[in-house]
Amino acid sequence: EPTSSSPTPWHEVVQRSNAIDFANDNVPILPKAGCNAGDCHATAGGGQNGFELSLLGFEPDQDYPQIVFHGRGRRLFPSAPEKSLLVRKATGDVPHGGGTRIQVDSPEYRMLVEWIRQGTPEFASSISDSRARLQQVVTMPDSQLLQPEQSIQLSVIAKYSDGSQRDVTSLALFESNNPALATVNELGLVTSGTLPGTAAIMVRYQGHVAVFRPAVPLGPALTEIPPSQNLVDQHVFTNLQRLGIPPSEQCDDATFLRRVTIDLVGRLPNSDERDRYWQAAADERRTNLVEDLLNHPDHADYFANKWTSLLKNRRDDTNDLAANFAFHAWVRDNLQAGTAYDQMVKQLLAATGTIMNNPAVAWYKRVKDPKAQLEDISQLFLGVRLQCAQCHHHPFERWSQDDYYALAACFSRVGRKPTGVQNEDMIFHERGVAEARNVRSGQMLRPRALGTDLGDIEPSTDPRLRLGHWMRSPDNPFFARALVNRYWKHFFRIGLIEPEDDIRDTNPPSNPELLEALERHFIASGFDLRDLTRMLVLSQAYQLSSRPNSLNLEDSQNYSRFYTRRLTAEVLLDSIDQLVGAQTSFSNLPLGTRAIALPDNSYNRAVPFLKVFGRPENSSVCECERVQSANLAQSLHLLNASDLKAKLAMSGGLADQLAQSPDDLSSRLKKIYQAAFCRDPSSEEIAEIAQFVAAEKPTKEDFEDVLWAIVNSKEFLVNH
Question: What homologous superfamily does CATH list for 130-216?
Answer without folding.
Answer: Immunoglobulins (2.60.40.10)
